[in-house]
Design a protein that fits this description.
403 residues, Aminopeptidase, Alpha-Beta Plaits, 6-stranded mixed β-sheet, 29% helix, disordered C terminus
Length: 403
């Protein structure tokens, strides 16, 4: 008879404890230690790794695993949160973890401390029913990969932790990222990929002069406006099977000229492209350069660009992992989720280089907002969905039997 696991973790209480750590990026504020203690009580082996580079702030990360064999099912997330804004605009202390009318309030309640708590609770319930993975006979492992740098530069977090795991020979076989994917109710959306994101800063250098004598100058503002218009005049592409059309948005236009009678010497603009799988950042960089060079005119002006890529587009094609999570959602919440690639970037963009990855968490209506909150009932439901996902994964016909 399988030995029952003695520890059960309450997801609401753990979420409250995590919220009470004011872990605004890149501060840890004790959040990783709270999580480590909970996981060690379940028998996880925990590794706390701190990374920094180029004089940047040190980032605290955690990798935890229970079980000694493959396959290794991983849950990934982040304990860092965005700033609160003016705290006087909150109805509750953003780091108190208060429950009001059945909702848990606090910075990180939706994004994404409650999802981390739900997974830890799911593991405790799973192990209580099926036994400690350490005692399984070559039947797999469960792990968590948690960073304190997702809301920041994302340099010394998940990416560095994955590199460290790879150096150790640690393999992850499947992963769920607990980002708040649902739009209105728990179970309405699973993210199976993300669009790529490219930010370009373009500066045009003309000839400064007097506005009354434009023939003696070369106005970089006029040139830059024409160049930008060439970028946004037509759609970049059409939608693909799993992605919406790529979009371009101009986010700033700066001249720094305080004189109304002076044509400035330069003008700078920034724009962001969210792109689907029709493109790579390399192909878009070539497209941008051709558009700009074709529309700068025949004068002596020139331009320079600075391009920063935060992630390439990627897709986890529908298959065993997506079928698993969809089945778990349908079983627990009686909802059939949409498989989507909408939204911004996430740390899944790093994980996809190592294993199949999908994203599923709580409802994100209030994430990053004043009075961020989630329904306590949704946290409980999410924990049950995560537990069912583990059951689907470790009791499939391809898995060895447990003792």
């Amino acid at each position: 008879m399988t030995k029952k696991h003695p520890i059960l973790i309450d997801p609401i209480e753990l979420a409250q404890s995590l919220i009470r750590c004011p872990s605004i990026t890149p501060l840890d504020a004790g959040a990783i230690n709270v999580l480590r203690k909970a996981l060690e009580s379940l028998g996880f082996k925990c590794y706390v790794k701190r990374f920094s580079s180029d004089g940047s702030d040190e980032v605290t990360n955690l990798y935890a695993r229970i079980g000694k064999s493959g396959p290794n099912f991983c849950f990934a997330g982040h304990t860092d949160v965005v700033p609160t804004g003016a705290t006087e605009n909150w109805n509750n202390d953003p780091f108190a973890g208060n429950i009001v009318d059945g909702n848990l309030f606090g910075r990180g309640a939706a994004d994404m401390k409650s999802a981390i708590a739900a997974f830890v609770s799911a593991v405790s319930r799973f192990c209580s029913q099926y036994g400690d993975p350490l005692a399984w006979k070559n039947s797999g492992s469960i792990s968590l990969l948690i960073t304190g740098d997702e809301e920041g530069p994302a340099i010394n977090g998940t990416r560095r932790l994955l590199e460290w795991l790879n150096e150790k020979g640690e393999k992850i076989d499947a992963c769920i990222v607990g980002e708040p994917t649902n739009q209105r109710k728990i179970g309405d959306m699973v993210k199976i990929g993300r669009r790529g994101s490219l930010v370009c800063e373009v500066s045009v250098y003309g000839v400064q002069g007097h506005t009354a004598y434009p023939d003696l100058a070369e106005n970089p503002i006029h040139l830059l406006l024409n160049m930008l218009q060439s970028l946004v005049a037509d759609p970049i592409d059409n939608a693909t099977e799993h992605f919406q059309p790529s979009t371009i948005q101009i986010s700033s236009f700066d001249v720094g000229n305080t004189a109304s009678n002076v044509i400035p010497a330069s003008a700078t603009a920034r724009f962001n492209i969210r792109f689907n799988d029709n493109h790579t950042s390399e192909s878009l960089t070539k497209w941008i350069d051709k558009k700009l060079s074709d529309n700068i005119g025949d004068g002596n002006a020139h331009y320079k660009t600075k391009i920063h890529v935060t992630g390439e587009s990627f897709i986890t094609p529908p298959g065993s992992l997506t079928e698993n999570i969809v089945s778990a959602i349908e079983s627990v919440s009686n909802s059939t989720p949409q498989l989507s690639t909408t939204g911004g970037t996430s740390d899944a963009r790093f994980i996809k280089n190592y294993c199949p990855v999908v994203e599923f968490g709580l409802v994100g209506l209030t994430m990053h907002q004043v009075n961020e909150n989630v329904a306590c009932a949704d946290i409980e439901t999410l924990s049950k969905i995560y537990k069912k996902t583990l059951e689907n994964y470790f009791t499939s016909k391809n898995m060895p039997s447990r003792p």
